[in-house]
Amino acid sequence: MLTNLRLFLTFLKIGFVGFGGGMAILPLIYQGVSKFVPLSQSDFADLFGISQATPGPIAINAATFVGYKAAGVLGSLSATLGVVIPSFLLVTLASSLLKKHRENPLVEGAFVGIRPITVGMIAAGVCYIASGALFDVDISGMTGMAEILGAVDPLAVVLAILAAVLVYTQKLGAIQLIIGMGVLGAFIFS
Amino acid sequence: MSDTHKKLKDNIYIQLFIEFFTLGLFTFGGGYAMIGLLEDRMTRRGWLNSEEILDCIAVTQTLPGVIAVNMSLYVGYRMKGIKGALVSVFGMVLPSFVIIILIAMFMENFGENPYLRGALKGIRIATLGLIVSAAIKLAAKTFNKVKGSKADSAFSIVLFGASFLLISFLGVDAVWVILGGMILGIGYSLLKGRRKTGC
Questions:
Q1: Where are the domains of chain B?
Q2: Which of A7, A17, A34, B95 is the most buried (most CB within 10 A)?
């Protein structure tokens, strides 16, 4: 029971201070639980691999996995609940405040600035996801443009363009596209 | 379709649960990866327009916590208050919870299966296509919307470019960039208001 409580409190804290989503939260989880959960080096490697290779939010996957290794299904529940509760409080609080002050000119002004910034952030997200989807090797150490372009998988580029066009023109829904590309990938990239 | 079946299908709480369960089941890689899916699904459902999708992304990114979880809470709360937020977040978390426990219980050497690795690569490419499509749609809507003065469009294009460069190339945390945009947006609207009233 004590382990469950510690899991809950550790993840509660992570939920309150973890900015930036999954990849930023994984190291916090590592630091937070290594004090009281006996996880081996390979468990941590699994934690990173499995959290990213399975569906769902990375940090929820990690919380469930660590919780299970520490204290079974109840541990998973404690960790997940811990990391979700701060979000629940903060998002509902922020949403109700926004709802109340939607018409306020200062709030409107803030969103006039925030919207183009968010589009820029999504464009940055395109680069981030492209770096994982279009290359077979790690490009983080590469500096020359020619070197980076040389590492691109041309088939992946063609498929990504095709995917974007199909969704943009509404020929395919997001879910159909993901299932289709998953099946296709299992055959051509295996 | 029977009457009860139809009633269930029309129930907004059940729709929220199903929608976020589906998003949880088909998003690989969390926050950024979910943007494309969220744009597609919310537009199809007619739940959020492009402006509201951007606001959702900005708010959920700025708050601490798991971004995809924040997104489900944000949309759920917007549609149906606290209860809507609860069913949505439950839907979002459930697929992860079940799948991870099954893997932790039964699977050894997860990720070494070549077919699984191939499927994941295919899915990453699909996710890229999705976010590219969403980025183009949201950018078009945002910049078309700025129908006001030239200064307005210049302001949003400069913010867009700065945000992209800061996050992508200088590695600045998106939270700070969004907060910066918020302050600049307030400053800009104050300046504009002053010019309009002529003081």
A1: 3-109
A2: A7
